[in-house]
Each structure stands twice: as structure tokens, then as C-alpha cells.
Amino acid sequence: MSALLGVEALSVAVPARDGEARAVEDVSFTIAPGEFVALVGESGGGKSLTALALLGLLPPPARIAAGHVRLEGRDLVTLESAALRAVRGRRVAMTFQEPLASLTPVLPVGAQVREVLEAHRLARGAEARARAVALLDEVGIPDPAQRYDAFPHQLSGGLRQRVLLALALAAEPALLVADEPTTALDVTVQAQVLALLQRLRRDRGLGVLFVTHDLGLVAEQADRVLVMYAGRIVEAGPTAALFARPAHPYTRALLAAVPRLDGPPAPPVPIPGAVPAPGAWPPGCRFAPRCQAAHDACAASPPLRPAADGHAAACWLVPTT
Amino acid sequence: MSDALVEAERVVKRYGTVCAVDDVSFTIDAGETLALVGESGSGKSTLGRLVLGLEAPTGGRCRVEGDDLATLPAKALRARRRRMQLVPQDPAAALDPRRTIGASVAEGLVIHRLAAGEARRRRVAALLEEVGLDPALAERYPHECSGGQRQRACLARALAVEPVFLVLDEPVTALDVSVQAQVLALLADLQRRRGLAYLFIAHDLAVARQLAARVAVLLRGRVCEEGPAEAVLGRPRHPYTRALRSAVPAPVPGAARERILLRDEPPGRALPAGCRFAGRCWHPAADGSCRDEAPPLRAHEGRRAACHHLEDPR
User: Fold this and answer.
1) What residue of B is the nearest CA neighbor of A159?
2) Per the omega criterion (within 30 degrees of 0), is the bond before A61 cis?
3) Tell me: the pLDDT tens digits for B210-226?
4) B204–A contact, CB cutoff 8 A
5) SS3 letters for A11-63?
6) Listed residue (B45, B138, B31) closest to B90, CA to CA
7) Cα distance from A263 to chain B (closest Cα, Å)?
8) Is B244 on the interface with A (CB under 8 A)?
9) pLDDT digits (tens, 9 = 90+) for B273-311
10) Do B251 and A265 make contact, defined as CB atoms within 8 angstroms?
11) In terms of CA atoms, which chain A residue is nearest residue B187?
């Protein structure tokens, strides 16, 4: 299967105390059409910067320092800004955690969807309106013709998140980058949004990069999982294998931190400490200072190497295949 | 009247024509945790404010240590407020951005004149240490702290006045899973050491299970199921609780479990006269009686639940 998205050795530089630091370093992965890939890790690990870099949306002075982002064969890193604008929205779109910050408060939500259609010259006038209503319907907004005229503040958090999805999907992108789309939502609404994403990838062949801090959330959703820590991918693999035999101590720690409803009562296990800031990353394995299994070899940086079950892990303790 | 530390007795709260809390009763003993779970708008936070006496109920009574908060004289109420504190959901909004963490934590000590000068400084340092923060953080401002540090600071502020009862309003919802686990462990530890009672407000059942021995599920202002956590969360019987449980993602690929996808509440429709869940109920037995007749809470399989069709096992 040819890749929809191919990220190669992507590095993102951000300002640090002494010049610049690589907040994202040497990150590579692919997403196939219709594939659901989860990018998981704690806040401050570089997930959101990676997502923003894919769309050329890094807030300056953060910048792509190295690497390629190939979408349908075209390298977005080298694209002129006008050409990039044409790709953004049209071929790749992004939704953010806080819908209120992404929607303008002064326009009805339907008009905002219609604006996207008109900006990309996909429809005009009455046809644009009809398509906007159809999109609101597709993302599961009840009474879409009436809700078309609603302002963002008149909608619940779950409906707003769905409006964001309608905006992102308006120009029929091939890839959706969703940054913590369900974190602020009730579990019932979260379940609806996740079901919607699954339907969209089935019906439209939409590729999804789903960014989240909650590894437990993606067990039933993702085809593949990328675990990110301190700017690097530390484990990657098919979801079933990664959950059955998490190889990297960080992946195991993330999983142990998930509060469980199933099984006997066992409190979630916290990960001691926090992700260090870019520029303050320790030499060698960056997780070593928080790792219970750390030993002498961890003073050297472990590469992402193939492990069992089609995994890859960046840990000296994981036997390679 | 019971000898519970906190007692809500048939509490009703109306805002104009909107009934936010409708005939809710519960008790919390010293050192005990009751979890209040439900979706946004179910009345959880309003109930939290009612039991703290921050709002007055339209009907019913909220008692703390035996006294009805609505009838306590102002001075006695102020003194009683020291015994109970609120820890809010969004620590970023709850801390004054222009004051240092230390000044915010000291606020209660100042208001209730509990400590001054060097004694106050020492007290703040001890409180920060108790919640797992470096006392040096007292000099920092909220924006210099992580979400987890801010939530710990909010806890330190609440503990400063030596309360016996905390209302924890979604205390870990805004936090990363890894930090969530840290704060949950801290809450359990503080409860053990200080004998605190908690009203733990949460929409996430898996989080509620970590702290609570008892759970009450709130559905549009009414309790629809309540009882021991293992019964209510482990084997829920009310169709609404079953739907809530099924919405919690299992961190196991391909887990075999009940999956119920709830519809949204139809917009603009008035509350049904009967069961508050009637408009969204997925249960095959749901019928006209659900819409017309409010089911009472009744004992069933080791908990109490309000549904006409509890005996139907589907």
C-alpha cells in the first residue's frame, strides 16, 4: 500500500536558553489511506509540535530544522506558502483540542463551514449552503438545517468539536490530524466522536493521525501506535502487539497510569517526575532518569530498532530481531 | 437526622424554570468518599456548591456536622466554611495569576487568621511539601507551573485551613494520564493521613472507581443509581449507568464488552414528566410508562436504582 503521508527524519527546532533546541528529533512514520495512527505521550513530549509541523503551522520562531513531510508524494517542507495553503485544508486538515479557540464567535457555525467550501472554490451560494448542511449532518449534528444558524457559544462542547470536524472535512482532505479531539468531552460524547472518526475512515478512506496523552483511549481505535517521549519516537507498532507486549519501559509506564474500570481494583501507577523541557534533555536515553530499569548502557542513546511482533523500540533492554 | 458528616436531604435547586437538582439525598461519613458521576449539565457541580453552602437550595436541606447551612448565622457559617473546602476543576482559572503560589496557598491562613509572619511562611512550606511540591515553588507564579503542580497547589490551599471535608470537582480531568495517576495517589494518601471526607465529582467512571467506596450517578438533576462502587460501576443496572460504563474506553484492543452509543438529548425538548432518561433510553423494554411515570429509587441487586425495567435482563 502506498503511503498517504511519509514523514522522514523530521526535526523541529524551538528557541531555548542557549540558542535552539530540537523539540522534535528525527521522527519518521507513514500513514496509509484509511489508516488510523495514534501519536501518544505526555504533554511536553513534542506530539503537538509534530502535528503542527505536518501542516506547516508551527508558531514562529519554532521551525522545521530537518526532514521531509511527503503528502501524496509532494514534500510539504519545500512547498511555497501559496502552494502549501492550497494543500492545507484541501488534502490535509487539523482539528484542535479546544473548539472555542478554533471557531470564530461572531459567525454562525454553518457560515463557517460554507466559508471553507467557498475559499477552496468547491461550491458557491445555495449549493455551498446545502453542502454545509450535509456536512453538519455527516458529523452527527442533530437538526443540521437549524443548527446551521447557531453561534458556537450556543452549542455544547461535543457539538462544537463536531463542527470543527465538519470544517476540517469540508474540502474532503485525505488526511486528518486530530490533536486531543476528545480530551475536553464527556465520555459519552467522546465515544460518539470516536465512532464518527471510524465511520469517516471507513466511508471516505480518510487517514487519521490521532494525538493523545491517553494510551488507553486508542486501544480500540488505532491500527498503529507511535509512542513519543522527549521529542523522539520511542516505540512504534501495530496496536494489538503493542498492547499485548509493550516493549519500551515508557510505553509500559503510560499503560500502567491508565485508570481501569475492568479487572480487580488496582490503583493507576504514576510515572514519577515530568518530561524535561527541550534543551534540558539528558544525554543518552532521555527516559533513563525516570526509568526503573535504567542501567549503565542507557548513558548512550538507544536507536529505534526492530523488536518482536513488528514493533520497533528505542531501548537497550529490548531484544532485537 | 443521621450522624453523618455531610448530609443532603431531598435537595432541590431551581434557576428560574430550570431544575438543576431535583430531590437528591445522600450522606458522607468522616473519612469516606462518595463519587458523584454524570455528564456535563447533570447537576454535579451545583450539588457540590450546595453542600458547601456556596448556594442555597430551593428545597430540602444540606447539613454539615449536623447543622443546616441555610439556618446557620453568618458568623457561624463562616467558621464552618473552614471545615470544608472546594478544589476546582481548572487549577489555571482557580489561582490568581498575579499572586505567587505561596500567597495563594496562604490565603486561607490570612482570612481565618491562623498564622502570620514567619509561622505563616513555615506553614505554607509544610503544606507544599505535603502535596509533593518543592517549597521553593512558593515564590513562583501559576504560569510558571505545570498543570499538575497547579492542581497540587490548589490542594495545598484547600488544606491550609485544616478542613475535614473536600468537594473535589473533576480534580484530574484537565491533567495528562500520567499526572492524573500522581494526583489520585496523592488524594488517597491525604485522605488516609488526615481522615478527610471527599465528595468526588467526576464524569469518568474509571477515575471515580479509584477513590470512591460509594457512587451516586446523577442524571439531569436526579440520582438514577447509587450504591457500593463495585456494584454500580462493576455491574451497573440502570440503562444510563450501563451506557456510561460502556463509553469508557477499555485499554485492551478487541476487549469484549457491552457497547451502547447514546444519542444526544434532542434539542429544546422539555424534561419528560417521567424518567429523565426516557428520551435517550436504548433499553428495548422502554415504553410509555417511562415517559409518564417517574421511577422511584428502589433496592435492586445490592444497590438502589430508578428504572421501571430493572428486572428485564436485556
Assistant:
1) B264
2) yes
3) 999 999 999 999 999 99
4) yes
5) EEEEEECCEEEEEEEEEEEEECCCCEEEEECCCCCCHHHHHHHHCCCCCCCCE
6) B45
7) 9
8) yes
9) 899 999 889 999 999 899 999 999 999 999 999 999 999
10) no
11) A267
Nearest CA to CA, how far is B248 from chain A (Å)? Answer: 6
CB contact under 8 A, B245 and A158: no
SS3 B105: helix
According to DSSP H, which parts of chain A are helical?
A: 47-54, 81-87, 99-102, 109-119, 125-138, 144-147, 157-169, 187-204, 239-244, 249-256
Distance CA A12, CA B186 (A): 36
Total-model pTM? 0.90
DSSP result, B138-150: GGS-GGGS-HHHH
CA-nearest of A174, A168, A183 to A113 is A168
d(CA A8, CA A280) in angstroms, rounded, equals 24
d(CA B18, CA B23): 14
> For residue A161, with 0-12 CB atoms within 10 Å meaning exposed, 13-18 middle and 19 or more buried, which class applies?
buried
What is the spatial distance between Cα A48 and Cα B94, in angstroms, rounded to a whole number? Answer: 26
Burial class (CB in 10 A: 0-12, 13-18, 19+), A282: middle
Residue B128 has pLDDT above 80, yes or no: yes
Burial class of residue A153 in the structure, from the number of CB atoms within 10 Å of its CB (0-12 exposed, 13-18 middle, 19+ buried): exposed
User: What ipTM describes this predicted complex?
Assistant: 0.86
B52/A290 Cα distance (integer angstroms): 40
Per-residue pLDDT of chain A (321 residues; tens, 9 = 90+): 478 999 999 999 999 888 899 999 999 999 999 999 999 999 999 999 999 999 999 999 999 999 999 999 999 999 998 999 889 988 999 998 887 788 999 999 999 999 999 998 888 999 999 999 999 998 888 889 999 999 999 988 888 888 999 999 999 999 999 998 888 788 888 888 899 899 999 998 999 999 999 998 999 999 999 999 999 999 999 999 999 999 999 999 999 999 988 877 778 999 988 899 998 999 999 999 999 999 999 999 999 999 888 889 999 998 876
Contact A238/A63 with Cβ under 8 angstroms? no
**Across-strand partners of B61?**
B9
Whether residue B163 contacts residue B196, with contact meaning beta carbons closer than 8 Å, is answered with yes
The residues, ordered by sequence, that sit 6+ positions from A49 with a Cβ below 8 Å of its Cβ are A12, A14, A23, A24, A58, A62
> Which one of B40, B146, B253 has the shortest CB-CB distance to A157?
B40
Q: Which residue of B has its CA nearest to A266?
A: B210
Q: How many other CB atoms are found less than 10 A from the CB of residue A83?
A: 12
| Cβ within 8 Å, pair A257-B261 | no
Residue pair B50/B21 in contact (Cβ under 8 Å)? The answer is yes
- Decide if B209 touches A, using CB distance below 8 A: yes
Residue A79 C-alpha, separation from nearest chain B C-alpha, in angstroms: 35
Q: For chain A, say whether B249 makes contact (Cβ under 8 Å).
A: yes
